[in-house]
Specification:
256 residues, alpha/beta, Aminopeptidase, two-stranded antiparallel sheet, 12 strands
Length: 256
């Protein structure tokens, strides 16, 4: 199921040939776990002309979270859980950032200029928010408010090297107020695979000014939650995606 673009007039971002911003899997499921993937896609609205980037750049980690959507889908189908995935590149608008954050529509990403994000005026930014950000967050809110929900999980991936800095973890859990849920997930994961290097609040930390899922969905709902980051070279192919979906399924279900 997909959520259509509610406003299709010329003043909006998305045209008739652009995909809907939200993909919803197992939408009718009463499963207690909700999976979300903010950086699942790498689409760019037709009117933005690829943001002036090459296909190779959009295929890199700057364009999307490599492997995250595939892991999310495998988890959703294996568990029978609902999942909300966002179809557009994080460079168009980052749905895990407040829209006013400097990197919500970045001018440069890991050293690569994003020409299509230069010179944006208030209206340019507003149509990205109304066309992509708002429908996605509304879909997550609706799914999380189902009375059966007990746990919220956001799936991301990170690059092994950023700005020259090596990131050695295989997986990391990001959290703030709810430290119990990620700690239980870490324990359940390392029980299966003790050799894993697990980071806690690595390689990022949660802040109101730079994050959305944890403050606005996890903490706002009062439900147990965690944002999960998997190193993207570990989930770049189907075998890796299946392995990590299996590990996470066992860890997540241990909480239930």
């Amino acid at each position: 199921m997909t959520y259509g673009n509610a406003k299709s007039d010329p003043a909006t971002l998305l045209g008739s040939r652009d995909p809907a911003p939200v993909e919803l899997l197992n939408g009718a499921s009463r499963h207690p776990v909700l999976l979300v993937c903010e950086h699942a896609g790498q689409q760019v609205p037709e009117r933005l002309s690829g943001l002036g980037l090459s296909r190779a750049d959009l295929d890199r980690h700057i364009g999307w979270d490599i492997g995250a959507a595939a892991v999310t889908r495998k988890l959703a189908y294996a568990m029978g859980a609902p999942a909300v995935l966002q179809a557009y590149s994080r460079l168009v608008i980052d749905c895990n950032r407040p829209p006013e954050a400097p990197d919500a529509m970045p001018l440069i990403s890991d050293g690569t200029p994003v020409p299509g994000n230069h010179g944006l005026n208030q209206q340019d930014r507003a149509v990205r928010v109304s066309g992509i950000f708002d429908p996605y967050q509304a879909a997550v809110t609706e799914a999380r408010e189902h009375p059966e929900r007990q746990l919220l999980i956001s799936i991301h991936s990170f690059t092994a090297r950023m700005a020259g800095e090596v990131r050695p973890w295989d997986i990391a859990f990001l959290y703030r107020g709810d430290a119990d849920t990620p700690e239980k997930l870490r324990h359940a994961l390392q029980k299966q695979a003790p050799e894993l290097s697990v980071g806690m609040n690595e390689p990022y930390q949660i802040e109101d000014e730079s994050d959305w899922f944890v403050p606005r969905h996890g903490e706002a709902s009062g439900l147990p939650h965690s944002l999960i980051e998997i190193r993207n070279d570990l989930i770049a192919d189907d075998a890796g995606q299946s392995r990590w979906a299996g590990l996470l399924r066992t860890a997540i279900e241990s909480l239930l």
